[in-house]
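Human:
Take a look at this sequence-structure pair and walk me through the tokens.
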Amino acid sequence: MNITPYDIALRFVGMKETPGVGANPAVLAMLRLDDTWPEGDETPWCSAFVNYVAWLLRLPRSKSLAARSWLSVGDVVPLVGTMQPTCAAVRGFDVGILERGAGGHVGFFSAFEQDRVWLLGGNQGDAVSVASFDKQRILGVRRLRSE
């Protein structure tokens, strides 16, 4: 049986941040896997989620809470044509944020639908979920595989 990052990520769908003063201990564990500073689960945690799933499978990780850090991890995969829904990490950015030189988002590729790309990721609506992004805002796709 070949378990993929997508298979593992699916098990977390529905996990949410804890609103208010408290914090979801699972999200905190993901955040603190590579950084000790996060005090709560309201810290952007999309990269922490991808790092955690990669860590569970002993795959290469960015070891950073910055979504952009994933542009330097794994093998480059073209956005169209060769993507496998179960094994590629996808980097998506909001164009406005990118123009200011900050921010981003990372998740696992789920599907194409016309001009949209669906990602399975953390911190999407403060939860692990599948959400769609404009295909034009995807800056890179990386395939994670054992070294």
